[in-house]
Amino acid sequence: MKWITFAVAFVVTVGLVIAGVAVYPLLGYAATVNNDFVFALFLGPFCVVLFFSWMGEKVILKIRKKQVDALAEQSP
Fold first, then answer.
1. 20: Cβ contacts below 8 Å, ≥ 6 apart
2. What stretches of the chain show up as alpha helix (H) in DSSP?
3. Structural domain boundaries in the chain
4. Would you state the torsion angle of the CA atoms of residues 7, 15, 44, 6, taken in this order, to the nearest 10 degrees?
5. What span, in angstroms and rounded, lies between the C-alpha atoms of 8 and 52?
6. pLDDT tens for residues 58-74?
7. How far apart are CA 56 and CA 44, in angstroms?
8. Which of 11, 23, 41, 64 has the most Cβ atoms closer than 10 angstroms to its Cβ?
């Protein structure tokens, strides 16, 4: 896994958690009272976003490799 994949997943998850707490006042109150809730609210989505980012990275790298190989075969 590349570092950029991890960084993007982290930033996206932070944005999701902040938006979720801002949109739902009840979650905002629970988040300030219970730190375990905040950790669970962050860790669950982070793992999911990281998994999909990692799989997307693998797909993109395979497609790029096929394109580079195809271009190498076409060149004289």
1. 27, 41
2. 3-23, 25-33, 35-74
3. 3-74
4. -10
5. 11
6. 999 999 998 888 888 88
7. 19
8. 41
CA distance 44 to 75: 47
Spatial CA neighbour of 1 closest among 52, 42, 40:
52
Task: pLDDT tens for the chain, 76 residues: list them.
Answer: 678 888 888 888 888 777 777 777 666 666 566 666 666 767 788 888 889 888 998 999 999 998 888 888 886 6
Instruction: Extract the tokens encoding 49.
Output: 């976003």
How far apart are the C-alpha atoms of 9 and 19, rounded to whole Å? 15
Alpha-carbon torsion (46, 2, 4, 63), positive or negative: negative
What is the Cβ-side half-sphere exposure of residue 14, based on CA atoms within 13 angstroms? 6
